[in-house]
């Protein structure tokens, strides 16, 4: 869309809507998709750029330009747009839909509905299944060392194909009358007498709405926390995941990623009895950097049409806090800030062998290393200077356990990037229909602490849309509407 096109789009924005959706990630877009079937007037607001304008400069420059907002983290499609593009088709991976719905069957039905929408807009028809002797053997090997392999039906879109799919998705919403207000920040919620009446934009403009959906995605975690405190929203602190992005030769991981493209291994550490897991595996992919307000983090993506010689995955330790401090987000941010300081504003990169020996990695050691780092904008260093001792010990022990399942994954040449932090924000208290403690304010997705991946975020968006429709008294059976397509 041209600058002129964006200006026209902003000019047509009305002063009042049936529903205002904050965030154009999977939660917000799937909610808009369901609500559009109910003939409601909908506005989707996002601080980032449109899908056809999102492009990280690091592709060409190999270093971060510190875009504000970050092109990877913000914009139509959400931060998952430039991730691996793998759909994990289970309700208990990336969240717990059964806990939200109160019914296991309904949770699986939601996953199926999300999958059908992705297929409609161009996701590949073929999916990686989870049956057969290879899967059984992998589960057996994991169990033999006290770990667990989670079998998941997966569908891989690819980072390079995701923008086109999202573009088709967004165009379908526009064709159905959904308005988009992009490159615009929501400053505050309009709350009058414990009831949400709309939103206040950063420039002071007020847009009124009968219902507001809070779904700003992972990038909006901090802002959601501010809204919780300012408006006394009922919420609780959840766990946080902190660790590293691991990069190994693809040939090491190929026997596993050919069975399951994004394999999930769960490990309980022996020393501290902490929960450690693999997450977001990118087969023959690339490590990327994420920009937050006051720190950096790492992530990974893989493409359908371009490959590297490496495979990368997140290796994360679950952190739960009680008293005297329960604020896991604040704790994780403090760790990420320290890592950013140690790395001079760049991720810290260390060889596994150097970490074992208690020495920092240097440019010279990395130049001789068998594994060549796909992310170049890094600082060779020592992650034990950046992450707490307990987390470092969990990472070393966990990778050595994983090495017994996947030989070579914990070799001296394995690369570790820090920090990798998964922010799930505070968990907003919602009812079965995703309504918060403030009347007519609904919530969905990662930024509200209600999901941790694309599929679960999308499913919570559907649930919130159904809750809004029910409250609006539309009497519209959205499932029947879906079956028309």
Automatic annotation (TrEMBL):
<feature type="domain" description="FAD-dependent protein C-terminal">
    <location>
        <begin position="272"/>
        <end position="421"/>
    </location>
</feature>
<dbReference type="InterPro" id="IPR036188">
    <property type="entry name" value="FAD/NAD-bd_sf"/>
</dbReference>
<dbReference type="InterPro" id="IPR023753">
    <property type="entry name" value="FAD/NAD-binding_dom"/>
</dbReference>
<dbReference type="InterPro" id="IPR003953">
    <property type="entry name" value="FAD-dep_OxRdtase_2_FAD-bd"/>
</dbReference>
<dbReference type="GO" id="GO:0016491">
    <property type="term" value="F:oxidoreductase activity"/>
</dbReference>
<dbReference type="Pfam" id="PF00890">
    <property type="entry name" value="FAD_binding_2"/>
</dbReference>
<dbReference type="Pfam" id="PF21688">
    <property type="entry name" value="FAD-depend_C"/>
</dbReference>
<dbReference type="Pfam" id="PF07992">
    <property type="entry name" value="Pyr_redox_2"/>
</dbReference>
<dbReference type="InterPro" id="IPR049516">
    <property type="entry name" value="FAD-depend_C"/>
</dbReference>
<dbReference type="InterPro" id="IPR028348">
    <property type="entry name" value="FAD-binding_protein"/>
</dbReference>
<keyword id="KW-0285">Flavoprotein</keyword>
<feature type="domain" description="FAD/NAD(P)-binding">
    <location>
        <begin position="17"/>
        <end position="59"/>
    </location>
</feature>
<protein>
    <recommendedName>
        <fullName>FAD-dependent oxidoreductase 2 FAD binding domain-containing protein</fullName>
    </recommendedName>
</protein>
<feature type="domain" description="FAD-dependent oxidoreductase 2 FAD-binding">
    <location>
        <begin position="161"/>
        <end position="229"/>
    </location>
</feature>
<keyword id="KW-0560">Oxidoreductase</keyword>
């Amino acid at each position: 869309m041209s600058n002129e096109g964006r200006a026209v789009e902003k000019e047509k924005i009305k002063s009042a809507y049936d529903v205002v959706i904050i965030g154009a990630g999977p939660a917000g877009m799937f909610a808009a998709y369901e609500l559009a079937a109910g003939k409601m007037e909908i506005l989707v607001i996002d601080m980032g750029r449109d899908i056809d304008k999102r492009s990280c400069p690091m592709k060409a420059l190999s270093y971060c330009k510190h875009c504000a907002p970050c092109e990877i983290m913000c914009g139509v499609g959400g931060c998952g747009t430039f991730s691996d593009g793998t759909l994990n088709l289970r309700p208990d991976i990336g969240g717990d839909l059964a806990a939200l719905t109160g019914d296991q069957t309904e949770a699986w039905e939601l996953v199926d509905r999300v999958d059908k929408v992705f297929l409609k807009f161009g996701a590949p028809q073929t999916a990686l299944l989870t049956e057969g002797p290879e899967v059984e053997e992998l589960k057996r090997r994991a169990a033999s060392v006290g770990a667990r392999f989670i079998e998941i039906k997966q569908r891989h879109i690819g980072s390079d194909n995701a923008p086109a799919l999202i573009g088709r998705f967004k165009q379908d919403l526009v064709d159905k009358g959904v308005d988009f207000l992009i490159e615009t920040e929501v400053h505050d919620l309009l709350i009058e007498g414990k009831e949400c009446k709309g939103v206040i934009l950063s420039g002071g403009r007020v847009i009124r709405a009968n219902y507001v959906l809070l779904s700003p995605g992972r990038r909006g975690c901090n802002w959601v926390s501010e809204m919780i405190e300012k408006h006394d929203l009922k919420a609780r602190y959840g766990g946080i995941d902190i660790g590293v992005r691991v990069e190994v030769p693809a040939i090491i991981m190929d026997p596993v990623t050919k069975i399951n493209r994004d394999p999930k291994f769960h490990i309980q550490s022996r020393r501290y009895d902490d929960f450690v897991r693999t997450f977001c595996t990118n087969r023959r992919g690339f490590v990327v950097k994420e920009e937050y307000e006051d720190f950096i983090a790492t992530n990974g993506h893989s493409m359908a049409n371009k490959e590297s010689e490496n495979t990368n995955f997140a290796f994360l330790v679950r952190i739960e806090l009680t008293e005297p401090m329960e604020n896991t987000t604040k704790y994780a941010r403090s760790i990420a800030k320290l890592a950013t300081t140690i790395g001079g504003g760049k991720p810290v990169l260390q060889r596994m062998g150097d970490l074992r020996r208690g020495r920092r990695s240097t440019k010279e050691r990395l130049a001789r290393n068998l594994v060549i780092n796909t992310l170049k904008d890094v600082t060779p260093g020592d992650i034990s200077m950046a992450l707490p001792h307990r987390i470092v010990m969990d990472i070393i022990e966990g990778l050595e356990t994983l090495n017994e399942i996947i030989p070579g994954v914990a070799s001296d040449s394995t690369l570790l990037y820090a920090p990798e932090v998964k922010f799930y924000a505070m968990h907003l208290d919602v009812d079965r229909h995703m309504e918060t403690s403030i009347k007519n304010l609904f919530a969905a997705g990662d930024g509200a602490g209600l999901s941790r991946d694309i599929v679960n975020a999308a499913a919570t968006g559907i649930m919130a849309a159904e809750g809004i429709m029910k409250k609006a008294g539309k009497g519209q059976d959205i499932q029947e509407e879906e079956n028309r397509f």
